Structure formats: structure tokens, C-alpha cells
Amino acid sequence: MGTIQLTGIGRSFKSTVAARDIDLTIEDGEFVVLLGPSGCGKTTLLRMIAGLLEPTTGRILLDGEDITDLPSKKRDLAMVFQSYALYPHLSVGKNLGFPLRVQKLPKEEVQRRVQEVADSLEIGHLLDRKPKELSGGQRQRVAVGRALVRAPKAFLMDEPLSNLDAKLRTQTRHELTALHRRLGATFVYVTHDQVEAMTMATKIVVLNAGSIEQYGTPEQVYDRPESVFVAGFLGSPAMNLLDARVIDLGGMVAVTADGIAGDLWTGTTREIDVVLGIRPEHLEITDASRTGLGVTLIGRVEIVENLGGEQIVTCATGIGRVHVRTSREIRVAAGDEISLHALPEHVHLFDRSSGRRLEWVPDDVPAVAPHDLLVSA
User: Fold this and answer.
1) Can you give the pTM of this predicted structure?
2) Strand pairing of 154-158 and 348-351?
């Protein structure tokens, strides 16, 4: 078992709040990624779970046991650091076996478990080498192996791939994902790289300024962002975010702004200032005469970036730039005036003052105020 519960966790450094009132449950066997920009509090949170930092407020539970005040060495957790933290004077085999020797296990048991872990990570042939004789990827495997050999309740990883080059980072990412599937253990992984988060995680915690913006599956945080921050942080290019206004056009909920118009769905609504969000891959370059539900933008092409299999088109509109991800078969050039269209199901609306997601409540839902746009919980 490896269920981790955080209740009201906070941490302050003098006048700086690194984490504030965090409630989070990481279920046994999940691969949870703590994602956010530099300074958002993700490493602070991980170090509090590991016992390397004391929380200012709140409690940490491991399988229901309060470990808030327990020293890190007595927590059944293994940490993999960004810098690998290998002992340079010890061989790979002795680095792997170090946690077991500290536990004073029999020599035969240590050798057996070291060999098993080394074989599973395909580093069995490196056991006699020193860390300085290894590549970055091999050192990372040794660091992971030293955590594995303990068979802890959960693995904590602090940006373990950041020191690797792009090709090796991709390969090691695949290996860690396969390792998680094979072990079925709990992984808590810190990164600022959204590709790592989207491809590895079963759940993502998006952090901003020490608070949780959203917690959900990769699909949930990408397809249904709960705030302007999440919408703008995930995606490359990020979601297009434009100031607009939702209005009632006699039985039709519509959106309007300079260079933007569109009927979204049948119904009625109060008028509200919103941030309109559309992902670049959901904008279609189309004929200006196109009709039907959806949002239409008129823009002028500024830049066309060839990415090989696709292209990113940057356009200037009446209220800001937008990015369009499209096939290279669509021929456009700088200076062209083009029409862009997005279907209603690909339109995201956020309250402009709070930044939180808005949901339209149709007329046939009596439990709340009818035909209105409400801030999502």
C-alpha cells in the first residue's frame, strides 16, 4: 500500500508562502505528477512528503498513519533527486546496496536484491563501475535503482530527467512509465515539463503560487481546464485566450468582441465579460462565408512556422494574437487575411474577474438558476 494524504498542508519561509492549505489524496498505485512553473511550490510539497521539510501547518498521512513529525529515514518512502546524489567513491553495486546495508540486512540478501534491480533496469553489467564512468542516462537508472531496491511504499522523484538531453529524456521517460506499470507502486513526480506530465501521469496536480489550481487526469486538465492559468499553462502553443463578452441574441447564446462573432448554442443568458479560450488545434482555417454554430475570427497571418509534420500559424486579430496548429497542406503566407472557425464544443469560457471556468446551465435544469453562466466549482 502507498496512499498519501495531505490535509491543510502549508509552508512559509519568513514572509514567503510556498504552499498554502493544500488538501490532496494520492491513491495507492497512482503516478501523480506535481506540475507548475518555477516557484509554484511543487518541490517544497515533495520535500514535505519526504520529511526533508517540516510543514508549517497541516498533516501528512501514509496509509492512514500520521507521519507529519516522523524523521525522513523512518518514512517508508524513497527519494530520487535531480542531481542523482550517487556516492562517487562507491561502485554501482555498492550504491544500489547502500540502503540495504544501512538496514543491516544479510550480505546474501543485499546481493540478491541488488542483482534483481540491476537486471530489471538493464544495468547489471555496470555493477563494478564508478558513477564517473557512466553516462547521464545510466546514472539516472542507478539513482532509480537505489530507490527501487528498498521496495518502499512510494517513490518520490524531483525532476529526475532534467539533466538529460532530449533523446535520452524521451527514452528514460518511457522506461519510468513501464517501470510504474510493472511495479504498480505509488509514484509522486515533480516536473515543470508538461510533456512529461501528459505522457507519464495517471493524475496531474497543477500548482500555482503554492495552491492547487486543478487535480485530475491528463485528459481532464487538458480538455477541461478549470482556470485561465491551467488553460494558458498546458499546451504548446498554449490555449488562445481572448477577452470577449457573452450576450443573449433572442434565444441564442452568443459571443462577441472586436473581430470575433459566433452563436454558441440555443438558450438564454445574462451578459457577462469572459475570457474566451480555444486551443490552436481546434481552430480551422475556413471560408469567410461559412455559417453555423461556433466562433469565427478574422485575422491576418504574421508568421508561419514549419514543424515538419504540421505548421503553426500566428495571426493578428482585433483583440490579440492567436495561434493555429494545422496541416502543412493548408497553404497560407505572411500577410494573408484568413477566417478561422471553432466549433462550440471546442470553446472554453472563463470568468474574467476570477479566472475560473464557466459552465452554461440550460433551461431544463431546475436545481440552479436557469439559463445562466455559472463559475465552475
Assistant:
1) 0.89
2) unpaired
